Amino acid sequence: MSDLNYNNLKTALMAVFSGEEAGHLAMLLNSVWQADIILYETVGLPDEIKDDYILMAYAERLLLPQASHTGGGAWQERCTTLLPGSIFVMPPVVYELIKTAHDSGRFNPDAAVQNVFRNKGPQNADQLAAFFDTIKPHAVSYNIEAGLIEVLNRTTALQLDLHDTIDCYVMAGMMSPCPGRSLSSGFAWYEINPALYW
User: What strand order describes the sheet that includes 64-65?
Assistant: First the structure.
């Protein structure tokens, strides 16, 4: 990865984090962003700070522990272990977000969402991106209830198949179900990737 890519990414991250945090996160993300599977030992940070920044990347949903039988597919259910052999993945939309930051020195969540759908090839890519732009401002602390998503879908001209749409968002790493919150409230809730608000 070139110095220009690193510097652009660090500049973009400094709009969200302190200078030191931005520098370390840029190192972490540059060391793994093109890997399909990310092993703990390949994360390019000194040992004394590696665990802290992997946990920060997980909290920001930039890196996710690989889903397994012991940990669910939902982000909040995934078990984070910080040991050699531990596997992490980068959501597709985060890959696109980092790619645009490498080029421009700033994050462009709208372009990342559009690119992730155009690259995956659904026929209604533009509609999926437009509807996500509609629901995103209605989340509270990055969480949104499925009933509200349904109401918003009815009030737009898009009239998307909501089940298929949410599946596309989940596969792209744009949102994840919140099982704990859904069980306690009786309503289905979803967490939107915090990085898409940068």
Answer: 38-39, 87-89, 64-65
E strand or H helix at 177: strand 175-177
Residue in the block written with tokens 């931005």:
22
149-158 residues labelled b (16+ CB within 10 A) or e (exposed): beebbeeeeb
Q: What is the C-alpha R_g of the chain? A: 17
Cα–Cα distance, 175 to 168 (Å, whole number): 9
* Number of other CB atoms surrounding residue 81 within 10 Å: 11
The sign of the dihedral angle between the CA atoms of 93, 14, 31, 50 is: negative
- Separation between Cα atoms, residue 149 and residue 158, nearest integer Å: 13
Confidence grade of residue 57 (pLDDT, cut at 50, 70, 90): very high
Q: Compute the distance between CA of residue 165 and CA of residue 36 in angstroms, rounded to an integer.
A: 24
**φ and ψ at residue 154, rounded to 5 degrees:** -70, -25
Give the pLDDT of residue 165.
94
Give the per-residue pLDDT at 1. Answer: 53
In sequence order, what are the residues at sequence separation of 6 or more whose Cβ sits closer than 8 angstroms to the Cβ of residue 85?
Answer: 39, 40, 41
State the angle between helix axes of 109-120 and 162-171 in degrees (0 to 180), rounded to the nearest 10. 100
